[in-house]
Specification:
This protein is mostly beta strands and 150 residues long. 0% of the residues lie in helices and 36% in strands. A hairpin with a 2-residue loop joins strand 8 and strand 9.
Amino acid sequence: MVPSASSGPPKATPSRATPSATRRSVAPDPTPSASPTRTPSPSPSPAAPLTGSYETVSDRVFGYRGQVVLSNPGPAARSGWTVTVTLGDGATVGTVNGAEAKQDGAVVTFTGAAVPAGGSATIRFDVRDPDVTATEPEGCTVDGAACAGL
């Protein structure tokens, strides 16, 4: 038998690429950022209320001619308004200019075209009243707010 150059089983040689412990830095979880918030756009401001001013233009026995001037201080035309005039007992409205009128008992309701932004509209009406001393209505409102002048 021929002697071998090595005696015994082969020995394992350690490889040079030995795993080394890797040091990881431990960073805290990132702080969640707040979701961007939307600044709400300003809601359209409610339309500025119309104002009304009553005036007796002329008076006569058994009646008078009145007018309501509607003023719109707002930046947009205002439609859908209502003027309500309360007359004395037995009084009726005759000729009306500047609006449509509907009378129910002593209450007369006027409606009409839009009042322009920054502008005004005038409603004139004749009243026949059995009270010879009546020279103005008992009440006047524009969209529920009292008219000036009464």
